[in-house]
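Input set for joint prediction.
Command: fold jointly, output tokens.
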Amino acid sequence: MPIIKVANIDFRYKDIRALREISFQVRRGEFLGIIGPNGSGKTTLIRVIDGILVPEKGGVSISGSAIRGMRRRDVARLVAVVPQDFPMIFSFRAREIVMMGRSPHLGMLRFEGESDLEITRRAMEMTDTLPLADRSMDSLSGGERQRVLIARALAQEPEVVLLDEPTAFLDIKHQMEFFGLMKRLNREKGLTVIAVTHDINLAAAYCDRVMLLKEGRIHSLGAPGEVITKSNIREVYETDVLVDANPLNGLPRITLLGSTLSGQESRSEAGAAPQL
Amino acid sequence: MEKSVITPSRIARVSALLAILFVVVGGVSILTGTAGIGVAKVFRTIVSGWREGHLSLESSEQTILFSIRLPRVIFAGIVGAALSTAGVVFQALLRNPLADPYILGVSGGSAVGAIIGILLGAAAVPFGIPALAFLGAVLTVALVFLIGSRGGGVDSNTLLLAGVIVNAFFSAVIMFCISTSSSADLHTITFWLMGDMSLADGEKIVLMGILLAAGAGVVYCYARPLNLIVTGEETAMQLGVDVKRTKIVLFFTGSLITAVAVSFAGMIGFVGLVIPHMMRMALGTDHRLLLPASFLFGASFMVLADTVARVVFSGMELPVGVITALCGAPYFVYLLRTRRM
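tokens >
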């Protein structure tokens, strides 16, 4: 049974049409990746699903209830978002940030009770952030901060977690750790995950299905092997890539070919070297 | 382990401590002044008065203590609490450590209102100048909102710039009024612009107290949403806050609290900027603690500043804004140089 139904969405920012005729469904417990070039509507789609932006046409429903017209509090109990990075104007401690995830479950003047503290503690345990609990957010590294933000999303106890280019500012080790953790939570807790990413290889490696967006439309949607093909990538990104199978797991792997020339040169140089 | 968890009992503990501080500072202030009423004498008479049912102070001393200095302490406390609370609100809403209660044009608007009042002789009417100052502040904030809002939403940066522009325009109007006014009015205007506490009386205190209590109550209901808004407006929405409504309620309430203080006491700078930072560094950013702490500490600070303004030159009173700026500006520089905001 689908947990998210997106039906025939059109969205425009003033005179720019950002999303057109977007329809798809996500199964409970699925890990869906959204890829596409800059300006293809990935982040807009995430914001429409979360109800931050209201589409001109069409609608989103999660667990059977329509997002449009729902109070923010009720949306926040269904959907959590892990953002790219975290602004640091006035700093909070990591535990305070995670506990903010309990906010949609509390009344206006209610304080966090025992159960909220316990849920917060468990969320931090799962993300290995308990040792950071009393550190202030601005003293944490980018990878640590992202783990705290995952913990906050878990503390919300949502049905769906949306990731909006969460690894944009992380190095490769922390990118892998981030997606590894999300995949584990997805498998073990049955959490439904939708991840926007620029990294096609990461999407191929961790997602059950991949959606490729082009100019606000769904270009293709399916298993990574079906979507991430040389011709699809050329059509959408207008860039030639080499797609082969990752020898470790058979999943598609892309290699950028902008460097083809220099690659050939260095190969021929290498070939020429022994003759000298 | 529970270090960073805010509980009602922690808020109560901190608030009680700061309330005691206010009582102590207030007591010191009541006993300090050029009339030279000795501490020992006051205590003796209060103790004996308690036993015998009446105070044995001379009536002129009673008047000074309870009809002049006590109302003034409460007045200063209300002004300090109002400005500090508004400062916390604006810094959080605008996510800007340099925001102060006057940032949305309250200062310029109320000053123009008050100066028009002074020039027209509204001082003769009870509440004449405060009423005009309040009107000026409210109209200005409404104007800033009109400029700063688009398509039903309020963008914080646009609002900030609109406030800056409106304040700049009104500064010009104020300078125009000052340069064309007589020297008698000039003194009144200058005092008003720098903050004047000498006009405290019972009626004003009751009126201000009620308005401040109502405003601070509304603000406190939004303490947790404010925490979330500090981490970003979209984040706050993702975590269930109705950001649009929260911002409109808080911008207006914050401006009204400021207008109350400014209309009665004039423009007192730096309190609303510095006190929130001091409290945030001492107690953290959680507004459920930060708001009551700033309210109480702001009150104490203002009473202290006013006491200094009263007694530092014997026979002459300084505008209290001079004291708050002289202490506040160097302290702010110290904060900038030594700590992250």
